[in-house]
């Protein structure tokens, strides 16, 4: 009896175990089924449709004004001398300052080196000018300065380095054409104004026989096709606008020389946008070569030369425009406008120098000024008859 009772107990345990096992298998099956029903492959996720951002068209603009030579004869700095021995040229530019100071970029050609008074001032034929000339131009808004001229080496390396020390101490002023080393000359220089990137170079084809010392050619940028090509190709694909100041042409000639035309076409092929000419000391024509705006000569901005022809200069302004639309960038030089300028002073004593726009002249300031206006306007527009020109408003 005891043995049979033990067998019953074992049988009951086996039944309980099998029941528990069956329940467990059923539970696992249900779990697997539930888990299967939540398989990631079968879960539907509601996603918001991807909205493509519409690329907006962007435009960038900058204004540029250009004037000619600051040719500082001794009569100019004598007139600028103050009682305390300092120099102040600001009053000479006070009539044109309201015009030039409103532009984003304002260019002029510093014909004579600003070695400063510590080296001793001098005039024609070898100039050394007060550094206060630069102060007056900066005060009038000028921030682009060409330094490569036929007078750069007039007083040697010392004067050049003194002038560069002055310019390098000025913030927000860009110079080109004269450097302290080859490294500085060949350094990639890219500037920006209002979202428009630009490069600025300056070269002279004239040296008056005063070339930089051997191994120091960086002191004055003497033009060669090879140098210009290397400079421009270094930055052409990295900037929107390339500007080149050229000291070239024939002194006192109202016409364009064959060399000027040759260089202008070459620079245009390299992708230069604006060529700004100096050296003739009189105005010359303006034209487009392809998309390149060429100003062959702006003439003098301020000087003490002795004829109306040499005392008449040109002020040119343009608008630089950059458009980015659907990833494509286009750049243009638009709305070229011209204004004639005249340097007035007392012809007998050569004092009271002041620069006037022709549009503010009258017969007291310059007798017969209207005929001069028509003469020089005809020169400037000879190759660009549609060029917008300021109108005369005086009596």
Q: Descriptors for this entry?
A:
nine-stranded mixed β-sheet, disordered N terminus, 395 residues, 15 strands
Describe this structure in words.
The chain has helices at 2-37, 74-80, 97-100, 132-139, 156-168, 182-186, 225-235, 258-269, 308-311, 369-380, and strands spanning 58-70, 105-109, 144-146, 174-176, 191-193, 196-204, 241-247, 274-278, 286-289, 292-295, 300-302, 312-325, 328-344, 354-357, 388-389. By secondary structure, the chain is α/β, with parallel strands linked by helices. It has one domain (58-389): Purple Acid Phosphatase, chain A, domain 2 (4-Layer Sandwich). Strand 3 (144-146), helix 5 (156-168) and strand 4 (174-176) form a beta-alpha-beta unit. The protein is globular and about 60 Å long.
DSSP helical segment count: 10
> What is the 3D shape?
globular
How many angstroms separate the termini?
Answer: 148 Å
Name the beta content range. 15-25%
CATH fold group: Purple Acid Phosphatase, chain A, domain 2
Quote the average pLDDT: 90
Q: What's the number of structural domains?
A: 1
Helix content: 25-40%
